[in-house]
Write a structure and sequence with these properties.
Largest sheet: 5 strands, mixed
CATH architecture of the largest domain: 2-Layer Sandwich
Helix content: 40-55%
Number of helices: 10
Distance between the termini: 31 Å
Shape: globular
Number of strands: 10
Strand order of the largest sheet: 3-2-1-4-5
Structural class: alpha/beta
CATH topology of the largest domain: Nucleotidyltransferase, domain 5
Number of domains: 2
Length: 334
């Protein structure tokens, strides 16, 4: 009998459902929430309400696209942590109800572990040990992976995440939310060497982006005092320079991690891994250092249920199930 799993992702502002069969993702449906754009960021209460509206049609579409019925399921999986607690509750309650009704096991998945395992959805897949640079709006981590279910964080941000640095820089530039993709868009036509921003000198494999964010703020204040339209006239070059610095901070730490561990199987994951500059940099650094590099497809980089599904697949094979008394957590660690 095939192992068929329905996975639900609801950690932030995307409602997503995926059906996986014997490790092959058959559907990965994502409903985005545009209501947050007018507020310049995700509003937790609005996010949880939107999840309640979206989850039934999203799950229904996931089943239809996969050509499967609820009765065909072997288990139901959901994002258990971390995330917005109201959003997580919507997904967990739905998953528990379906698992109870179908009398199948429940599988709780850690959101950040799932991001790492997005690299294992499609071929080519990494071999172990494997290093993954996981970068998103809320996290920046270097993860050492011994197997699909054995991984540990060897470096992480001490303050802001890389995705947060992108979005907050965009806000300082007057760009609408979400600003990270807009910085990437402008950067593609800009001169990344025109403006030089500092690289934090943080020991070990940890990151820091708060100082860079402050440097960008002072840079814009100083130049706008001389010319109020400075940012508008130099948008492409500023965005390219900001993106270049964020990426070099990330890649320099990743090089150090690869040298310290001796690992040459290297990948990226998380929402920021959709950034074209970071994807290009990984390929270039890989060629330079002799790495085998891996980047998930765009649809598996941002929050999605396909990555929850592949994590659940490995947990099912290992017999790692979750009790019905499980509760979601906003800040659970690996």
């Amino acid at each position: 009998m095939p192992v068929n799993i329905l996975a639900i992702e609801s950690s932030c502002d995307e409602t997503s459902a995926s059906v996986i069969s014997d490790g092959k993702v058959l559907s990965n449906i994502i409903a985005n929430q545009t209501v947050h754009e007018q507020y310049g960021g995700v509003v937790p209460e609005l996010a949880s309400r939107a999840h309640q509206e979206n989850i039934v049609p999203v799950v229904d579409l996931a089943f239809r696209k996969a050509g499967m019925q609820p009765a065909d399921l072997s288990a139901v999986a959901f994002t258990q942590s971390p995330g917005l607690i109201g959003s997580l509750l919507v997904g967990s309650c739905f998953a528990k109800s379906m698992a109870l009704a179908l009398e199948v096991p429940l599988i709780g998945v850690h959101h950040m572990q799932a991001h790492v395992l997005a690299n294992f959805i499609e071929d080519p897949k990494p071999s172990f040990p494997f290093l993954c640079l996981t970068v998103s709006g809320g996290h920046t981590q270097i993860v050492y992976c011994e197997s699909p279910l054995r991984m540990r964080i060897i470096g992480e941000t001490l303050d802001d995440a890389a995705g947060e640095a992108f979005d907050k820089s965009a806000k300082l530039l007057g760009l609408p939310y979400p600003g990270g993709p807009l910085i990437d868009k402008y950067a593609q036509t800009g001169n990344a060497m025109r403006f030089r921003f500092p690289e934090p000198q943080i020991p070990g494999l940890n990151f820091s982006f708060s100082g860079l964010k402050t440097a960008i703020l002072y840079f814009l204040q100083e130049n706008r005092a001389k010319a109020p339209d400075f940012a508008e006239r130099n948008m492409a070059d500023i965005c390219a320079s900001i993106q270049h610095r964020i990426i070099t901070i990330l890649m320099n730490k990743l090089v150090k991690a690869a040298m310290e561990t001796g690992v040459t199987e290297i990948g990226i994951a998380g929402g920021v891994s959709a950034n074209s500059g970071l994807r290009k940099a990984l390929a270039e650094y890989g060629a330079k250092h002799g790495w085998n590099t891996y980047i998930p497809k765009f649809e598996y980089c941002t929050d999605n249920a396909g990555m929850i599904a592949i994590a659940a697949h490995y947990k099912y094979l290992a017999g790692e199930f979750t009790g019905m008394d499980a509760v979601p957590s906003a800040r659970a660690v690996f």
